[in-house]
Amino acid sequence: MSEPGEELGPAELEQAANVLAEEAGLSLARGLGPALRDALLAAARGRGEGARLFSRRVASREPAAVADLLEHAVVVETSFFRHPEQLAALAAHLGPRPAPLRLWSAGCASGEEAYSLAIAMLEAGRGTRGDAVLGTDVSERALAAARRAAYGPRALRKVDPAAAARWLEPPDAEGARRPTAPVRAQVSFARHNLVRDPPAPAGAFDAILCRNVLIYFEPVVAAGVLRRLADALRPGGALVLGPVELPLAAAVPLDWVEREGATLLVRPG
């Protein structure tokens, strides 16, 4: 059983925060502070060891301990069709293109955003175009939930009923619904760390959604991630950030395009 939380002092918390910053760009000063102690305690309980012993493993950069802490520190709360105006703007921007689209949900958590993106393009009449959506996240736990693709009413509360009838299977015995086979066929998932892993190939994507991820990064880390995301766009491709994150992109060489009540950051060309 884990040791009482009060025995995790400022030194342990600071060391864990430093590891999170190094490994994934996550910043104690930008929203993780209140949750860090809980993440350490939960990870320690999951391993069946004391919190102080676990915090020492994290401080020594043991890979398994760091991975466990990341699993409990990252934010996985999301829903289908979050900020629907942004998805409508993307559909209007990309919908008429005849070639298959390659779309990236970066920081996809448990998959709702990636499936929403696929549904938005299907609703735009792109069912025969061969589009592909890649969802990535640093959390293997979140990716496992994304691949299961079973979602309860809370996650689906913003889905239009007519679209739900077209693109979601009927509820199962527990009330969960899955995206239909045509939706799931367009979506794949992979683990990717936006800070530590190699960047995506230049010009690989027609659109990248990275929403409510950068707010947890130090400003210099967020700036580097934004540059790499912009480089991964094809000419005319669009980057979509959370509305509160748009000021972070002020120095990125992308055009700000207003559509459907949302702002797209479009690569010139």
Please describe what this structure looks like.
- By secondary structure, the chain is of the alpha/beta class.
- It has two domains: 5-73, no CATH class; 84-266, Rossmann fold, CATH 3.40.50.150.
- It contains eleven helices and seven strands.
- The chain has helices spanning 10-24, 33-47, 51-59, 63-73, 84-94, 112-123, 140-148, 153-156, 161-167, 181-186, 219-231, and strands spanning 102-106, 132-137, 187-191, 205-210, 233-241, 255-259, 262-266.
- Strands 3-2-1-4-5-7-6 form a seven-stranded mixed beta sheet.
- Helix 6 (112-123) links the parallel strand 1 (102-106) and strand 2 (132-137).
- Helix 3 (51-59) packs across helix 4.
- The longest helix is centred in the first third of the chain and has 15 residues, at 10-24.
- The termini are far apart.
What brief labels describe this structure?
single chain, 269 residues, alpha/beta, Rossmann fold, 2 domains, seven-stranded mixed β-sheet, 11 helices, disordered N terminus
Task: Explain briefly what this protein structure is.
By secondary structure, the chain is of the alpha/beta class. It is built from 11 helices and 7 strands.
Question: How do the strands and helices of this protein lay out in sequence?
Answer:
Elements: H1 10-24, H2 33-47, H3 51-59, H4 63-73, H5 84-94, E1 102-106, H6 112-123, E2 132-137, H7 140-148, H8 153-156, H9 161-167, H10 181-186, E3 187-191, E4 205-210, H11 219-231, E5 233-241, E6 255-259, E7 262-266
Parallel strand pairs: 1-2, 1-4, 2-3, 4-5
Antiparallel strand pairs: 5-7, 6-7
